[in-house]
Amino acid sequence: MSTQTASQDQAYLDAVKVLERYKTEGVTREESNAFLQAAIDDLQKGNTDEFAENVAKVSDSAIAVDEAFDRVKRGLSDLVDKFGGDFPDLKAYLNEWNGYDQRWVTHLNLSRDVASEHAGILKRFSEVYIDMVQSIQTDQDRKDVILELEVFASEEHDRSAEMSKGFESLKRDIEAFVIRFDAFIEQTGTELLQEAEQLRSDIENIKSEIESLNGQIVDVTLALLASLAAAETMIGLISLAVTGTILVVLLGKRIAEEVNLSNKERELAEVNKKQEALAEIKTEFDILKPDTFLICDKLAMFGAIWTSVREQTLQFQETLKGGMDAIDNKTFKLQLKLAQELCIPLTAGLERYATQLDNRPKRASI
């Protein structure tokens, strides 16, 4: 074991011990203040643009998932066009997926609107309400700010909850859909594999039959030609069926088997196409599944921003109700400062997210 690995393992064990102490004894005021100050320092020393980009780049994932939704939709539509007659269930899966796709687009557009709305909320929270708390000078100021915070916390931003629930519901429905569709693909794939194996067996049998007929045709031709046996090759090449001889029967039989062989090979090629199409759509789903579940979780978190702001506002209001001593309380000051510092990159990130989503490539019509 390397020194670095041993050090990492020990650091992890130490962290677990501290966590256990937090659970049993709680966190001291000094530890909490130190954490708040460290977070503030990191935000102030760090690259605000980089923090904002961490939020904004969720749009890259969202756009990638949007493209994946569209690819699956097109893939299913193509399958239905080509093989809907063979697999009637495909149409039902396509219709169901179209519904999920419409919900995805609706929720994605809502996330853009919510991001813009929350950027405005965060600005007001930081630049108006937190600033208001930090500017308290008199007891009357304190009382006035308590009322202002109450009004702010009572605002309704229902679209946040609507968006969160929408993504969570969509995620659950897609999970259930994928389980059923995977089972359909597996069952259909098994059936196609069995059909392909049977066709390959039939083709080999027909080839054997044709080879046998070829031998019989040669034997008959040679026998009937007698001393002119050298002409057999020429007769064979032009498939001359001499009237009134058993050669007519044998050549007719071979022609029938050759037609049968051609049909079987055509059927096998069609089965191979179906297998390839199913494999391709399965690959798309395998790519889409983890991306969709992750992005739904991330975008649902956007909806939780107002809940977080509201809870912090109520917390600040409750602290102020304790009297003027709260104004000089170190922990309270640190909490206000951290909330304010967090709003800066969050606001910028949400604004970028909304802009990038607005400018995402338009889907081509099917």
Number of DSSP strand runs: 0
Q: Which H/E pattern describes the elements?
A: HHHHHHHHHHH
What's the story with the biggest beta sheet? Answer: none
* N-C termini distance: 57 Å
Low-confidence sequence ranges: 226-238, 240-244
- Going by helix content, strand content and strand pairing, the class is mainly alpha
Topology (SSEs and partners):
Elements: H1 3-25, H2 29-45, H3 48-56, H4 58-83, H5 89-134, H6 139-153, H7 158-225, H8 232-238, H9 246-303, H10 305-320, H11 330-358
Helix pairs in contact: 2-11, 3-11, 4-5, 4-9, 4-11, 5-7, 5-10, 5-11, 6-10, 7-9
Keywords:
elongated, 366 residues, mainly alpha, 0% strand
Quick structural overview:
With 366 residues, the chain is mostly helical. The chain has helices at residues 3-25, 29-45, 48-56, 58-83, 89-134, 139-153, 158-225, 232-238, 246-303, 305-320, 330-358.
What would you note in describing this structure?
- The chain is mainly α and 366 residues long.
- Helix content is 86%, strand content 0%.
